[in-house]
Each structure stands twice: as structure tokens, then as C-alpha cells.
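hey all, quick one before standup. I had two proteins in the batch that finished overnight and I want to keep them in one place so we stop losing track of which output belongs to which input. First protein below, input sequence then C-alpha cells straight from the run.
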Amino acid sequence: MRKITVLSMITLDGVMQAPGGPKEDPSGGFKYGGWVAPYSDKVYNKVIEKELKPADYLLGRKTFEMWAVYWPEHGDFWPGINKGTKYVFSKRLKKSDPLVTGWKNSAVIKSVADLKKLKSSKGPDIQVWGSSELVQLLLKHDLVDELRLKIHPLTLGKGKKLFGNEAITAAFTLTGSIVTPGGVIIASYKRAGNVKTGTAGA
């Protein structure tokens, strides 16, 4: 069984779209690409550096298409992304697609059954970066073992969100957290069974 970890930079209102730069993902008229940059500092960067350890990767089609153009030429910053296996979840892409064949160690998976089979297989742990629609699908089918969130102190209103309305009800346990000098809460949550309810103060 392989662990699936979602790593995401989000705003207080859950927006995760285009944190890295103005041209990263302007779809839907998104105007705030690169909103993470003002919060960079030594503490933040050290966390990022640790998260870039070798792994396998599960990406949505749009994220994969953007990354397949960029990362093969910038592997000096993140060697693991080119060495690890990239699984792209897509009904549109085929294994013969030039983007898939052109980025070393890439493969296409097409169904929830394939996702479950991948998780049950042997191999390195799997990281999910970006890929909002894929993350929501994973949460819907209870396939996320860990959330590593960087919660930035701003709201953007519109934009692609980390959480949709179809996530399975699930409890998570906080396994670690820090606050950067810039006010970013970096927190890790591990899947922890079912949701419990009760009466406050009883």
C-alpha cells in the first residue's frame, strides 16, 4: 500500500490556483498568479526543500501539461520530479501523446479503479501537487492519507479551490505545524478515521 500525500499552497478561503507565477494558470480570468512570492523566507523555503525529496507523483491533466513543458528543462532545482514516475490522471491524454512520451517516466491512468490499483501497488509514496479537480476526486473516494497545507494569510475570492462539496466525511489528526515569519501556517494532517459528533460543553 502506497501513501498518497496532497501538498498544497492555499489561501484562507481555500484558493490554490497559480501560486507560483502570473502566467502559471490564468484560466477563468484569474488575475493573482504568483500570490505566494511575497511570503518567501528561510523558514518557508526550508520546508519546501524537504518536500522536494524523491517520490512518485500523481497529477491532473492541466498540471501535468504545464509541468511537462517546464520541469524537464529545470531539473537542477528539483531533480526528483524528473527521476520519479509521473502518473497523469486523464481521459483525454494517451500514453502515445508527445507530452507523455517526451517527459521521462510518465504514465497515464484513466479511472478511479486505476487510482485505487495504484495506491494498492508497491513502490514509493505518491505526492499530489496542484491538480485541484484530481484532489477533490481523491478526497471524494477517501484516497488521501495526508494533507500538507501551507495556509497563506490572504483571501482571493475566486479561483480554483482545494476542497469541493463532495469530499467524504473524514477526520484528520494534526501531526505537525509551524508558523513562518510571514504568517504562513504550515500544517500536516494525517487521515484518522471517521468524523465524531457530540454536544459542545456536555
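OK second protein, same deal, sequence then C-alpha cells:
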Amino acid sequence: MIDIEKVKLFIINKLEKELPSGLYYHNVRHILDVYDTVIRHAAALELSAQDTLLLKTAALFHDSGFIIKAKGHEEISCSYAEEYLPLFGYSEEQVKIICGMIMATKIPQSPHTGLEEIIADADLDYLGRDDFFEISDCLYRELLNSEVVKNEKEWNALQVDFFEKHHYFTSLAKELRDGNKEKHLKIIKSKITKHT
């Protein structure tokens, strides 16, 4: 019997100790946010205990590769899953499914299974939430810090591009988040218009 609480404690401790500073968005708070979101989705969709366990595990590990680097972190996250999860009693097949879910969060997202769609949506759940601007500000600070963007103008342009390419996969996420996501996009576009 796998004890998800032990797994959670292990990976959260590792992340708290080893994640580099300057990750204002890709940090433990984001991991736990995605974890809570997959739990809500699994409950709403009445998933089995087994599928819920796999989703929760993938959520906990999906950004652990940021310990090493941002680019290609999903592959590193998978290697952590392959290294550590068997120690907690996960089978080879379970780890394979979890790695599939971790890879489904890679941008641009291309999930292939129902579980992969759920975690892909959970990873970007904030786009259509009321706390969107607060969270996106953390991502802006992180990208500024790592010199991915130079200023707010570049950041807003990046966000518009991202929003226009992104779509939710599950009908649940579409129903919950699409309306708000559209409102957020309009606000970002209006900021760009003001600055031009």
C-alpha cells in the first residue's frame, strides 16, 4: 500500500532544500497548488483511488527537475520519479504512467490520455482563476530574474501569445476557467494598448 503522505513529505522536503532561489513561481507553492487542483478534479470526475494516487504523485514531481535547471526540467522530473518512486512501492507501470503525466505538462502541452489532460489543465489552472494576476506577477518576476524577459512590455506580449495558443483539454477545466481566462486576456491586451 503506497503512502502518498510519505511521498509528499519526501519530495516537498527535497524541493524546499534544493530548489534554487529566484523561483518565484516554480516553487513548492506552485507544486502544492497543482496537487490540490488534481485532487479537486479527481473528486469532481469521480476517478478511482488508483488514478487519483497517480495524479497526486505526478503533481508532486512534475516540476522537481527545476532543482537542476528550467529548460528540460520535465525529463529531469521523470528521472527523479524513476529513481525515488520505486522506493515507496510504485510499480514500473505506475512510474511510466506518472512520467507520461509529467511530460504532458511540457509547453506546448500535448497530453495523450485522460489523466495527462487533467494534470496539463491543473498545471495552468491559474490562468482562469481569480488569483491570476497575483500568480502571474510571480512568474513575471521569475522570468525577469532569469532574463527570459527584459520588461513588462515583453512580458505582456509573451502572455498574450501564450493565452492565444493555450486551451484547456477537459470539459471540467473549460467550464470552470474559460470565462475568466478570456477576461484576463482582455485586461492584458488593454495594458499593451495603453503602453503603445
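Flagging for whoever picks this up: The chain has a mean pLDDT of 97. The two ends are 58 Å apart (CA to CA).
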